[in-house]
Amino acid sequence: MAGRFGATVLINRPIDDVFAFLADGVNDKKFSPRIVEIAKTTDGPPGVGTVYASTAKDGGIKMKHEFKLTEFEPPTRIRWTELSEHPVVVTEGGYDLARAGEATQLTFFNELEGRGVGVLLAGIALRSARKGADAFAHSIKSAVEAA
């Protein structure tokens, strides 16, 4: 089973500032309570091919994840895919940014897919993610505006 969740939020910061904050994946820890630790594992500035390795707490269990940036178009678009081999993975995720006067409209999404036994778990994970999507978007907003 595959499914998508996401949300849109208005961030009171210029688009270039929002993009720079989100492009640096180590900032994920500032807005995602799931992230225990995260680091960039490739050299150079963020861009297509950059990989971030993280430890996240999912359902009370710590799991290691790796994500690779697949699209990087400043200041409006970032895409990623999960490289990890888990029962439920993010096949594609992304940020879309648009100018909204002096502010920035941010839309984020993740597409989840269950693999193997994960097919049975993906629906539960997706329902939970959808319920928390608006709160997650507001966590991003708060972190960016505080930076």
Can you characterise this structure?
The protein has 147 residues and is α+β, with helices and mostly antiparallel strands. The protein has one domain: START domain (Alpha-D-Glucose-1,6-Bisphosphate, Chain A, domain 4), CATH 3.30.530.20. Helix content is 29%, strand content 46%. The chain contains 3 helices and 7 strands, in the order βααββββββα. The protein has a 7-stranded antiparallel beta sheet with strand order 1-7-6-5-4-3-2, with helices on one face. A hairpin with a 2-residue loop joins strand 3 and strand 4. The N and C termini lie far apart (37 Å). The mean pLDDT is 94.
Oligomeric state of this protein: single chain
Strand tally is: 7
Give a quick account of the main beta sheet: strands, pairing sense, barrel closure.
7 strands, antiparallel
CATH architecture: 2-Layer Sandwich
CATH top level label:
Alpha Beta
Which structural class best describes the helix and strand composition? alpha+beta
Shape: globular
Radius of gyration: 15 Å
Approximately how much helix is present in the residues?
25-40%
Q: In total, how many domains does the architecture comprise?
A: 1
Enumerate the strands of the largest sheet in spatial order, edge to edge or round the barrel: 1-7-6-5-4-3-2
Q: Report the order of strands and helices.
A: EHHEEEEEEH
- Mean of pLDDT: 94
End-to-end span in angstroms?
37 Å
Q: What would CATH call the homologous superfamily?
A: START domain
CATH topology: Alpha-D-Glucose-1,6-Bisphosphate, Chain A, domain 4
User: Total number of helical segments?
Assistant: 3
Strand content: over 45%
